[in-house]
Amino acid sequence: MKMLVSVFLALFLPCAGMSAVFVLYLCLLWYAASHAADSNSPSKPPPLTGLSPSDLEKLPKTNGHGLVLGSECAVCLDEIEPTDPARLLPGCNHGFHLQCADTWLSKHSVCPLCRSKIEPEVVCSSSETESPC
């Protein structure tokens, strides 16, 4: 009888252990698959919100001579010549070619160099001081 119990335990315990590991493995697979389905459905990124053409007109324009910080356009990586029209962003004073800045700012409302938020509502040219922006 003792030998029968020993043989039974010798066969049963490894089978029971392997079955438990297999069930645990299946549970982990099910858990990973159910949570992967949730993370695979990407949430829609927020739409790009750039500045409107009227907001772009409120931003200061200058030429290459009027730039405060450097003379390289960070958008196209080309030098801004002294006679080239340029856009000087308020707040950070970074300068870019006028067309490069307007193209960027029509899709993004941040400076392409330092990522500071551009707020055209607070920018007025000197001719508009008597009327609100």
TrEMBL record:
Pfam families for the chain: zf-RING_2
Signal peptide: none
Chain spans, region Disordered: 37-57
Chief subcellular location: membrane
Bilayer-crossing regions: none
Keywords: Membrane, Metal-binding, Transmembrane, Transmembrane helix, Zinc, Zinc-finger
Domain RING-type: 73-115
Subcellular location: Membrane
Gene Ontology CC: membrane
SMART domains given in the database record: RING (SM00184)
Family in the record: Belongs to the RING-type zinc finger family. ATL subfamily.
PANTHER family recorded: E3 UBIQUITIN-PROTEIN LIGASE ATL42, RING-H2 FINGER PROTEIN ATL43
Protein name as annotated: RING-type domain-containing protein
Organism per entry: Kalanchoe fedtschenkoi (Lavender scallops)
